[in-house]
């Protein structure tokens, strides 16, 4: 069974987001070994551009050991997929025998360039900015939707 990991900087504090993430995580257990790895976020009240690079570098150092298999890094400049094309990408990875797929959600300042360079693909859901906890729910749902599409389930209409 394929392993799917979401490596995310920061914690989900809102119960309603946690409930949704837990629901889709439970549903995903039919298709894959699904795991979310939460990493410590750097906290600074005010950050200038040099401090932002330090923050991204420190968070990147925490992310790096968790990059396994095919790595998708979420980034505003990443490729946008329809749900169907995303499902096709997941299917192609499972068809070639990829054992692990990892998704990375960076901290509030984004992801270090070192992590982006290690990525097999940069993906974006929108040109809009979303709270990280909402995005984690959205990503988890889209991963579930991809597996459902590939199964031929009626979930995706």
Over all CA atoms, what is the radius of gyration?
15 Å
What best-fitting shape do the alpha-carbon axes yield?
globular
Major sheet size, sense and barrel closure: 5 strands, parallel
Terminal CA distance reads 26 Å
Structural class: alpha/beta
Number of strands: 5
Detail the poorly predicted runs. none
Helix segment tally: 5
Strand percentage? 15-25%
Sketch the topology as an H/E string, one letter per element.
EHEHEHEHEH
- Helical fraction equals 40-55%
Mean pLDDT over the full residue set: 95
Strand order of the largest sheet: 2-1-4-3-5
Can you walk me through this structure?
The protein has 157 residues and is of the alpha/beta class. The protein has a five-stranded parallel beta sheet. Helix 1 packs parallel to helix 5 and helix 3 crosses helix 5. It is globular and about 50 Å long. The protein starts with a strand and ends in a 6-residue tail after the last helix. The model has no long low-confidence stretch (mean pLDDT 95).
Strand and helix layout:
Blueprint: E1 3-9, H1 15-28, E2 33-39, H2 49-63, E3 70-80, H3 83-95, E4 100-105, H4 113-118, E5 121-124, H5 132-151
Parallel strand pairs: 1-2, 1-4, 3-4, 3-5
């Amino acid at each position: 069974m394929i392993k799917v990991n979401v490596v995310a900087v920061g914690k989900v504090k809102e119960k309603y987001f946690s409930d949704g993430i837990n629901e889709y995580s439970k549903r995903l257990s039919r298709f894959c070994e699904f795991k979310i790895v939460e990493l410590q976020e750097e906290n600074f009240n005010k950050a200038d551009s040099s401090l932002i690079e330090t923050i991204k570098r420190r968070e990147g150092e925490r992310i790096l050991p968790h990059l396994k298999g095919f790595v998708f890094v979420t980034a505003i400049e990443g490729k946008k997929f329809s749900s169907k094309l995303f499902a096709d990408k997941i299917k192609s990875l499972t068809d070639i025998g990829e054992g692990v797929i990892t998704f990375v959600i960076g901290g509030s300042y984004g992801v270090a360039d070192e992590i982006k360079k290690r990525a097999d693909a940069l993906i974006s859901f929108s040109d809009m900015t979303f709270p990280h906890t909402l995005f984690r729910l959205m990503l988890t749902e889209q991963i579930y939707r991809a597996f459902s599409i590939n199964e031929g389930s009626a979930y995706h209409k």
